[in-house]
Design brief:
heterodimer; A: 20 helices; 3% strand; B: mainly alpha; 55% helix; 2% strand
Chain lengths: 410, 488
């Protein structure tokens, strides 16, 4: 009998019944179906012939893992529990490497990665900061390397398990503020996208992955991609996962604002995101004074969440909305707008003294980025706008031309 | 309500997904094919991303550095197998083969080889090869036998569970347990084991890990904390390839006077930049070797950073900047705010958004109120909007040496401004451009514009914007690397 498939089933069972298995192992009932399965699986594994190199690995893994389960059941210190789990994880990695290509235990890999992070977090709260989570990083990176070395297409190959590792790595790096370190796994996944079909994964994994890749895109000012990813994550996030939904929408809103979609006040109140309420109104109406005030008031909050630089870019959107309003109110017949009129408005909104040349500079940049279709005559100080749609929709500008939004590359 | 949430995930979906993964029929690879990474697919290639500053060129000096590193750390597995040595006696051969027989995997075999080789070498050095009783010597223990899993408790745990669950199966399962019974060791054997264990402080799994050739940062080479005795004020820079000689390293007092001398020479313009840079590097090296990390170290790094910046040597500036960041974080006082402002400028000019966001996070209220930090934050804002009017005004008012830092990028910044101007205005005065973009004179402005391909009407002194749009977008100034300027 081949104990290997039993072993894989055992690992998957372990993943599916992890919480209960712990309690059941310590208080065993005769009729428990899971325990009979466990026993059967163990007898299969342990019945492997002696010469098999996998036997050694299975022995190591099982003895350590059962120790971990027993310790957790007895309620030992999180630091000890984590140390044992980490060891178990290391043995699991070896087992994973040794298994032939066609058979992988994806569910177990997922469970291992998720558990490792949560245990590391628990241990961090009690023990010395930094040690546990660094060990976790090392372990996950080893497993990730093992996944990467596969050549077959997913599912059914080790490549399939790579996403679980990347998710764990993202969580760890973001919690350590080492966001640059997330680039390497993300780039690797992007390169191998055609082999890793993200649709095959369970929704929770997909949502986690999209959330982190959306956040990375937001950091790098790739607004279109950020909006796409975060929207997916938000739509498919479980409706009862309140904390996660709030996290996602907190980063989705800046992306949406940049693309001209303004969230309703009820939505912001529902998710208790009061920092966005005032600034949304300011951007929508083009009220530059209010925009600066709101940005100053909530500066710390934005900086701590890492969205400050994106919110700063909304100033250009505010300007655009203001100019659009001016043009509408003045209702000029021949599309020639005197820049002096704009100066008058800006004098009320911006702190004195006003620099008229700066107004021209702002207009020139907006024309350059396609926010206004016009040209400026410097001597006469007028802006001649196009007759058709001089203020195109923000979404059309970015998604249509696939430009990097308001981001000049140096 | 523009967000709608749909519940997609159900329990049955997750279980069926798991089953799908396990039961997927995939053609199994033949035993001969291995899981080696296909170079076309999985190997990670270390590239510098667009948001990181360009890496130092791979010059001959870096190749020499790498070769020295390899030469000083030879890999063990390049040696021959012990068995190939014909001079070994028979009982030693038998002993070696016994050791090999115990191994199950390739890794264990590698480990066994290493241990046996060391035993043979030791015996050879003590002239014991022929005399030692190899038949009775214990074969070295493998890592899996050394791991302190309490096997006895494991056994009993499994046994009790099996017994409780099912009467019949317990005997068969227990009989099949391949767990080795724990050995009862005599005191002598235990001592020997401990001695052997202590010889290998690192876990054996690390033996088969690939050795990465690391790019050794200049200032992190060798860290010995020795006391120097040299008294020479001037000393050129040499790359260290081994342990430094105490007679060649200068102590702190000498370094202080050396720095004073260099500062004086630089102020009076008695020396050229390559010489000064070389001397400063050797001062930094002597400090690193002696682990001097105090206010004097900060002063030395700050001096080199400023002088490097003045001479457009961004590579050394960046090195000093990173070291200074570490020193400031460990609490040593220096011109923290000034260099913080430089860091903010550096990251925003290089478009390193993530690092910039992290710097902002760590900014304190007190730092934000200093003039230089405020100035650099204003520049960050002007850069993100490409507000060239404000940007060049700030450039003219830059405090300390921020102006030199912006100078490194000034051509690119001017090109971006010209792109905007050429699109927005159909025709524009050159004087307008010269004023806005902080040119020293109209002639310099004209020179620059023509060098990047702009079309100028000489008589009316105006820029023909329409014709200049394309050259401004495609000029090589936009992609030229900054680091290659004037390295020492």
């Amino acid at each position: 009998t081949d104990g290997l498939s039993d072993g894989i089933q055992f690992l998957d069972l372990l993943a599916l019944s992890s919480g209960k298995a712990i309690s059941e192992l310590s208080a065993i009932s005769k009729t428990s179906a899971r325990i009979t399965n466990l026993r059967y699986a163990l007898s299969g594994i342990l019945g492997l012939p002696q010469e098999n190199s996998l036997t050694v690995l299975w022995n190591d893994f099982l003895s350590n893992h059962l120790l971990y389960l027993a310790q957790k059941a007895r309620g030992k210190e999180p630091t000890e529990v984590f140390a044992n789990f980490n060891q178990s994880f290391v043995y699991f990695t070896k087992l994973f490497k040794a298994m032939p290509e066609g058979r992988i235990c994806a569910q177990a890999t997922k469970w291992f990665c998720v558990e490792l992070y949560s245990l590391a977090k628990e241990a961090e709260q009690i023990g010395k900061k930094g040690t546990y989570i660094n060990e976790a990083v090392r372990s996950v990176q080893q497993l990730f390397a093992a996944c990467q070395s596969s050549t077959l297409e997913a599912p059914g190959s080790k490549l399939f398990c790579a996403i679980f590792c990347t998710n764990a790595l993202f969580k760890i790096f973001f919690s350590l503020d080492m966001i640059q370190a997330c680039q390497t796994p993300l780039k690797w996944v992007m390169q191998n996208e055609d082999k890793i079909h993200i649709e095959y994964y369970p929704m929770s994994t997909q949502v986690t992955f999209k959330y982190f890749s959306g956040r990375m895109a937001l950091y790098q000012m790739d607004i279109v991609k950020a909006e796409e990813d975060l929207q997916f994550a938000f739509q498919h996030c479980h409706k009862n996962a309140h904390k996660n939904r709030k996290l996602i929408i907190r980063y989705l809103i800046p992306a949406k604002l940049m693309l001209g979609t303004y969230p309703a006040e009820e939505l912001l109140k529902k998710f208790k995101l009061k920092e966005y309420i005032g600034i949304t109104q300011a951007v929508k109406s083009g009220n530059l004074k209010k925009f600066s005030e709101q940005l100053d008031i909530y500066e710390e909050s934005f900086i701590s969440k890492g969205v400050y630089l994106v919110m700063d870019k909304l100033r250009t959107v505010a300007y655009r909305n203001l100019f659009k309003k001016i043009v509408k109110i003045l209702s000029i017949p021949d599309n020639r707008l005197k820049i002096d009129e704009i100066d008058k408005v800006l004098a009320t909104l911006l702190p004195p003294p006003l620099d008229p040349l700066e107004t021209e500079c702002i207009l020139a940049n907006m024309i350059h980025q396609g926010l206004i279709k016009a040209y400026i005559s410097h001597e006469k100080r007028i802006m001649i706008m196009s007759k058709v749609n001089p203020f195109p929709k923000l979404r059309e500008i970015y998604i249509g031309t696939k430009k990097q939004f308001l981001n000049i590359k140096y | 309500f523009f967000f709608s949430s749909r519940r997609r995930h159900t329990r049955s979906a997750s279980v069926s997904w798991a089953r799908r993964c396990v039961q997927e029929t995939v053609p199994q690879p033949s035993p001969t094919t291995s899981n080696y990474a296909n170079p076309a697919l999985g190997i990670q290639v270390k590239k510098t991303g667009w948001d990181r500053p360009p890496v130092e060129k791979f010059t001959s000096s870096t190749v020499v550095k790498a070769l020295n590193h390899i030469a000083s750390n030879p890999r063990v597995d390049k040696k021959q197998d012990i068995l190939e040595d014909k001079t070994l006696p028979d009982n030693l051969r038998k002993f070696i083969l016994k050791g090999y027989a115990k191994c199950n995997t390739e890794q264990e075999k590698d480990y066994m080889k290493m241990v046996l080789r060391q035993m043979v070498e030791m015996a050879r050095s003590n002239n014991q090869i022929a005399t030692k009783n190899w038949d009775e010597t214990e074969v070295p223990t493998l890592p899996r036998e050394m791991i302190k899993t309490p096997l006895s408790t494991m056994q009993s745990l499994l046994k009790t569970q099996m017994e409780l669950a099912h009467k019949n199966a317990s005997t068969t399962v227990a009989a099949q347990l391949p767990l080795a019974p724990p050995k009862v060791l005599s005191k002598e054997e235990q001592q020997k084991r401990n001695e052997r264990k202590s010889r290998f402080t690192s876990a054996p799994e690390q033996v088969s890990k690939p050795v990465l050739i690391e790019k050794i940062a200049e200032d992190e080479e060798f860290d010995f904390g020795i006391k120097g005795t040299c008294t020479k004020l001037e000393k050129p820079y040499f790359r260290l390839s081994g342990a430094p000689d105490a007679a060649a390293v200068r102590p702190e007092e000498v370094l202080k006077s050396a720095l004073k001398m260099l500062k004086r020479k630089w102020k009076k313009k008695e020396a050229e930049y390559p010489y000064i840079c070389d001397q400063l590097r050797s001062i930094r090296q002597d400090m690193m070797v002696q682990r001097i990390k105090n206010e004097f170290a900060v002063e030395a790094y700050e001096t080199h950073a400023r002088i490097a910046l003045e001479n457009r040597d961004i590579a050394h500036f960046n090195q000093c900047q990173t070291q200074l960041d570490d020193l400031y974080n460990s609490g040593i006082k220096g011109h923290n705010e000034e260099f913080l402002a430089y860091r903010i400028l550096y990251t925003s000019l290089h478009n390193m958004q993530i690092e910039l966001a992290l710097i902002l996070k760590k900014l304190t209220m007190r730092e934000k109120q200093t003039h230089c930090v405020q100035h650099s934050l204003q520049i960050v804002r002007a850069l993100s909007d490409n507000n060239y009017r404000v940007l060049f005004q700030l450039y003219k008012q830059a405090p300390n040496m921020g102006g030199y830092l912006i100078d490194l990028f000034i051509e690119r910044l001017r090109t971006f401004a010209l792109q905007a101007i050429s699109v927005a205005y159909p025709i524009i005065d050159l004087q307008f451009v010269a004023d806005h973009l902080a040119f020293e004179s109209l002639e310099k402005c004209t020179q620059f514009i023509t060098s990047i391909g702009g079309v100028i009407n000489g008589t009316t002194k105006k820029l023909d914007c329409k014709a200049s749009i394309k050259p401004f977008r495609t000029t090589s100034v936009l992609t030229k690397k900054i680091n290659q300027d004037n390295q020492c």
